[in-house]
Structure to design on (749 residues):
């Protein structure tokens, strides 16, 4: 009997399952049929739901929900989109919509992959991020600047090589065909000596590296290429392109977010809860990110401490004046030393070169390199007396080193125009590279090697005391780049091959210095944050560009070119090749236009108009900046007032405070009082319910209709006959009825 009952139960379960499966299949088929028979309104509603699900998928990361809820909603939204996105429409419309959806997905994927590809193509991005994570944004800003300079010089090299060097090699006279391209007989025996090649003499002197190798024929080759005109216009175009790129970079930096020193709200909260990148999957990258977040906290702490620091202002002013006096004495001494060396070099130039030693031949370059090596650390030591914020101290350091390099640069220019040949731009650049690399190898690597391996057997702690590990000199390296680029801009006209040498120098510097900073240097004791919109580097570079342009323009417009070498030999002035091309190759009206355009009567008003336009734009910019500052102050005051109203505090608005002072109670609003509990009011059954306005909720203000003010009726059993009605005990304001008068009695006269 038990077995039969179990069999019957199993049969019933099978029947129920069959019914459930049939009902589910019928429901699915009905749903499919419903999808096929949707009306236009339902299709529009379905499309709207699909778009809402897509929007939810895109903004789900910003929702303040738990991760479990996010994943559940994301899965549901994705399934809904996949189910109904391609199923909308009928016939060809359905297939067209599905095709559009497919193409949209492919386009989105292609754009994402292309952005990833562009990011991967950025040179040295990972290396710079690694440096930033360990040393902060101030050190990383140098490597970003170095990478930008490398890109600029790569474009300049493309211009010079493609428009000047390559046409001369392909269409010009070969080596040895004319005297300017042939090593003299008295120099052929030593033309391959290492000492001559190291000083860019011998065969290097009569190569495409220098100005004198290029042909002065008006046209060369089968294409009738105008090499002298191309040489002049390319040299001018290099300055024009560099000017546009530098100004564009400065404008882009100015358009970015506010200055790094600008105060923001909730700095540490933002850093604590929003700094981590949850897409990191590499342990090494995670370590770098952890170090970067730690460094950013240190930077922010330093900023806050600097803003809250109290100091003796008189002592601080005295120390800063004394520090500037010492730095001025150092600059004056370096200027006198350069003047003395230049005078000695002029005397050596009149002597027989064979009687001079290597030190006497290279005295100018060595002194200038050593001054650039010794003075920046000395300036940094003196700057400790000033105790500026690290960001401000860096700007002062850059300005002082820039003044030193500027004096070196123009002293070198005076030497060029007097005694030194063009046998010196390349020598100065190469000697600067050698001094820089030797300084890193001996000063940083050797110092770190001694501290690392001799600290255990030394008398004192080498790591904490002298010599300790070296810090990366950001200001000195930046000014070295700026000074080197100024030499490139000037030397590109006299030595076209110097641009290619500089590209190789910047390429090797990126790898060499990034290795040195990670292996030999330690982070600064006072870690600080570099401003994103800081145009100080670009401002110095723009000034160096202008100062480098002056001697080149002076050479083009004033000095007579060499009569036996160079593309302008045989001309009275270098710019005569432009006038010759206009007169012989262009129509007459273009020559007239050029003549009128170069008339001083038109140039001076044009310059005046440009100055007025610049002045107007500067004025408008200052007005906009002031308006933005006022708006920020108003927004800050509004936020503070809102906080104070919520916290029941006095207002911070000065106008409201002045109005409050005029009143007797010194306040426009009543003082905050504790809310009393309203008395319990019993509502009669015959009356309506009490209604409360939403705006007065929580303030004890009730708006009532037909409210009964009778005493509350005690809910207890009646045990005796009620007596005459009387007022409540102790209520003196209520009227007591007289004897014999009831509720309906007539009043007594």
């Amino acid at each position: 009997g038990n077995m039969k009952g179990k069999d019957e139960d199993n049969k019933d379960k099978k029947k129920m399952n069959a019914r459930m499966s049939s009902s589910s299949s019928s429901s699915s088929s009905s749903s499919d049929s419903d999808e096929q028979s949707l009306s236009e309104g339902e299709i529009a509603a379905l499309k709207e739901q699909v778009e809402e699900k897509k929007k939810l998928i895109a903004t789900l990361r910003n929702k303040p929900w738990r991760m479990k809820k996010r994943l559940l909603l994301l899965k549901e939204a994705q399934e809904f989109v996949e189910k109904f996105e391609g199923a909308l429409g009928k016939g060809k419309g359905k297939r067209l919509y599905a095709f559009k959806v497919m193409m949209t997905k492919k386009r989105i994927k292609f754009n994402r992959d292309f952005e990833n590809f562009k990011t991967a193509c950025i040179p040295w991005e990972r290396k710079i991020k690694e440096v930033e994570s360990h040393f902060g944004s101030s050190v990383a800003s140098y490597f970003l600047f170095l990478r930008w300079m490398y890109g600029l010089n790569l474009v300049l090299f493309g211009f010079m090589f493609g428009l000047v060097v390559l046409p001369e090699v392909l269409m010009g006279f070969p080596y040895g065909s004319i005297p300017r391209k042939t090593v003299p007989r008295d120099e052929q025996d030593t033309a391959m000596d290492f000492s001559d090649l190291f000083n860019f003499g011998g065969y290097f002197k009569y190569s495409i590296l220098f100005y004198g190798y290029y042909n002065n024929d008006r046209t060369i080759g089968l294409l009738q290429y105008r090499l002298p005109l191309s040489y002049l216009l390319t040299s001018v175009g290099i300055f024009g392109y560099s000017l546009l790129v530098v100004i564009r970079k400065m404008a882009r930096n100015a358009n970015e977010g506010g200055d790094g020193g600008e105060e923001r709200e909730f700095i540490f909260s933002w850093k604590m809860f929003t700094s981590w990148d949850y897409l990191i999957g590499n342990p090494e990258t995670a370590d770098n990110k952890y170090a970067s977040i730690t460094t950013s906290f240190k930077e922010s702490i330093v900023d806050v401490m600097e803003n809250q620091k109290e100091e003796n202002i008189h002592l601080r002013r005295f120390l800063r004046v004394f520090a500037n006096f010492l730095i001025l004495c150092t600059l004056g001494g370096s200027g006198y030393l350069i003047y003395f060396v230049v005078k000695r070099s002029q005397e050596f130039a009149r002597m027989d070169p064979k009687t001079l030693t290597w030190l006497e031949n290279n005295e100018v370059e060595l002194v200038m390199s050593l001054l650039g090596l010794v003075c920046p650390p000395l300036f940094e030591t003196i700057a400790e007396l000033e105790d500026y914020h690290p960001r401000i101290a860096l700007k002062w350091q850059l300005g002082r080193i820039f003044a030193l390099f500027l004096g070196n640069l123009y002293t070198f220019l005076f030497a060029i125009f007097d005694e030194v040949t063009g046998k010196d731009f390349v020598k100065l650049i190469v000697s600067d590279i050698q001094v820089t690399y030797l300084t890193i190898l001996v000063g940083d690597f050797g110092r770190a090697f001694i501290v690392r391996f001799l600290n255990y057997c030394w008398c004192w702690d080498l790591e904490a005391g002298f010599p300790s590990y070296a810090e990366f000199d950001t200001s000195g390296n930046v000014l070295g780049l700026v000074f080197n680029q100024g030499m490139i801009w000037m030397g590109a006209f006299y030595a076209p091959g110097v641009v290619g040498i500089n590209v190789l120098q910047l390429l090797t510097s990126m790898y060499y210095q990034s290795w040195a900073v990670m292996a030999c240097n330690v982070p600064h004791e006072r870690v600080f944050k570099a401003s994103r919109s800081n145009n100080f580097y670009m401002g110095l570079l723009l000034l160096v560009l202008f100062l480098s342009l002056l001697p080149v323009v002076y050479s083009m417009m004033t000095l007579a070119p060499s009569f036996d070498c160079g593309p302008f030999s045989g001309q009275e002035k270098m710019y005569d090749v432009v006038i010759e091309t206009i007169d012989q190759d262009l129509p007459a009206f273009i020559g007239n236009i050029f003549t009128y355009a170069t008339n001083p009567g038109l140039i001076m008003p044009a310059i005046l108009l440009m100055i007025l336009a610049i002045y107007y734009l500067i004025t408008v910019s200052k007005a906009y900046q002031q308006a933005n500052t006022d708006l920020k102050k108003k927004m800050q005051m509004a936020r503070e007032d809102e906080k104070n109203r919520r916290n029941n505090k006095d207002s911070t608005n000065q106008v409201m405070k002045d109005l409050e002072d005029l009143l007797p109670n010194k306040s426009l609003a009543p003082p905050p009082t504790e809310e009393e509990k309203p008395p319990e009011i019993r509502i009669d059954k015959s009356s309506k319910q009490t209604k409360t306005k939403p705006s007065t909720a929580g303030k004890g203000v009730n708006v009532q209709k037909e409210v009964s003010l009778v005493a509350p009726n005690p809910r207890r059993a009646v045990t005796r006959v009620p007596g005459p009605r009387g007022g409540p005990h102790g209520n003196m304001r209520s009227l007591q009825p007289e004897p014999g008068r009831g509720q309906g009695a007539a009043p007594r006269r």
Notes: The mean pLDDT is 74. The chain is about 65% helix and 0% strand. The first helix runs from residue 2 to 36.
